[in-house]
Amino acid sequence: DIQMTQSPSSLSASVGDRVTITCRASQGIRNKLAWFQQKPGKAPKSLIYGASSLQSGVPSKFSGSGSGTDFTLTIGSLQPEDFATYYCQQYDSYPLTFGGGTKVEIK
Amino acid sequence: QEHLLESGGGVVQPGRSLRLSCGGSGFTFSSYAMHWVRQAPGKGLEWVAVISYDGSEKYYAGAVKGRFTISRDNPKNTLYLQMNSLRTEDTAMYYCARDRIYPPTKVPGIIAHWGQGTLVTVSS
């Protein structure tokens, strides 16, 4: 199975900050990488697929990049509604696997 | 408006069975692969199973293979997860989720939309 490792596991940031989260795959996954946002007590929300393509309705302050084994999610100008846990997930091969999550907290 | 509604969760003893259902509305259910993803209390997301739009392809996580069965009834717009030989470690919120259409693959794995989840607790 492909292992997905996210860093950091948590971070503190202020409103207006630009935040970057990293995801690394244990083997090359081309661009078969998705990102999700989850707020406490809520279902996940799909943000990005294909490493950099936004899902429908996702604001452009979210952006993704990377290919192969190393990927990043960037949130430009953090707003109160962006404080959440973010997960990456590979879909290059089954079983699908998720990263451990990055919790973005208010500083 | 697209909507996924899970049901069937509850408290069950170890070794027993449970069947989850997920009804889809607001989209052409029969055109999309569907997934089950779970989340143990306080833990991260864990993919469980996928079924292609026509039911011809299915894949499972190693932790549930041989115990869980995913199926669908397209005329009823419903996805199922039959869970047998339940263990305490199967305790989780179970989400159903819709894939994207991405031909020619039948099971792209690109999760686009999620239900609100149904809680399964396995305890004696």
Structural write-up:
- The complex is a heterodimer of chains A (107) and B (124).
- By secondary structure, chain A is mostly beta strands.
- Helices cover 0% and strands 50% of the residues of chain A.
- Chain A has strands spanning 4-7, 10-13, 19-25, 33-38, 45-49, 53-54, 62-67, 70-75, 85-90, 97-98, 102-106.
- In chain A, the strands form 2 sheets. In chain A, strands 2, 4, 5, 6, 9, 10 and 11 form a 7-stranded mixed sheet that branches.
- The radius of gyration of chain A is 13 Å and the shape is globular.
- The mean pLDDT of chain A is 97.
- Chain B is an all-beta fold.
- In chain B, the strands form 2 sheets. In chain B, strands 2, 4, 5, 6, 9, 10 and 11 form a 7-stranded mixed sheet that branches. In chain B, strands 1-3-8-7 form a 4-stranded antiparallel sheet, with no helix packed on it.
- Chain B is globular, with a radius of gyration of 14 Å.
- Chain A binds chain B through residues 1, 32, 34, 36, 38, 43-46, 49-50, 55-56, 87, 89, 91, 94-101, and chain B through 35, 37, 44-47, 50, 59-62, 95, 100, 107-117.
Largest interface: A-B, 24 and 24 residues
Structural class of chain B: mainly beta
CA distance, first residue to last residue of chain B = 40 Å
| N-to-C SSE string of chain B, H for helix and E for strand | EEEEEEEEEEE
Question: Tally of extended strands of chain A?
Answer: 11
Order of helices and strands of chain A: EEEEEEEEEEE
The chain-level structural class of chain A is mainly beta
Query: What is the count of DSSP helices of chain B, taking H or I runs of 4+ residues?
Result: 0
Shape of chain A: globular
The oligomeric state is heterodimer
Please report which band the strand proportion of chain A falls in: under 5%, 5-15%, 15-25%, 25-35%, 35-45% or over 45%: over 45%
- How far apart, in Å, are the first and last alpha carbons of chain A? 36 Å
Spans of chain B with pLDDT under 50 lasting ≥5 residues? none
Helix content estimate of chain A: under 10%
Radius of gyration of chain B: 14 Å
